[in-house]
Amino acid sequence: MARLNTLFFLAVVALAVVALVDCLLTERSRLQSFPRAAWAVLILLCPLLGPVAWFRAGRGAPAADIAPAPAGPDDDPEFLRRLTESLRDR
């Protein structure tokens, strides 16, 4: 039983450490619900529920800064524009 308790304790500590590091390294624009300091305190004071709350509600989806690449040449508007121009020039 002592081994199981030790394993559980180590798993909770590892989860809290990973959540805290992730919280501290997450961009400010992705933080949701609370400021970074509040999330860090929640993770440290509630080592099981804090990390779970952080991973579920604390960080938002990554911002889509870059447009997704076209799946094929017929989906690329730049390719279609050049194709139309080359057909016109013939």
Structure description:
The protein contains 4 helices and no strands. It has 90 residues and is mainly α. The longest helix has 24 residues, at 2-25.
Q: Can you tag this structure with a few keywords?
A:
90 residues; 63% helix; elongated
In short, what is this structure?
The protein is mainly α.
Total E-strand runs = 0
Beta content comes to under 5%
Overall shape: it is elongated
Q: Helix proportion of residues, in percent? A: 55-70%
If helices are DSSP runs of H or I spanning 4 or more residues, what is the number of helices? 4
User: What is the terminal-to-terminal distance?
Assistant: 82 Å
> Tell me about the biggest sheet?
none
Structural class: mainly alpha
Residue ranges: pLDDT <50 for 5 or more in a row?
A: none
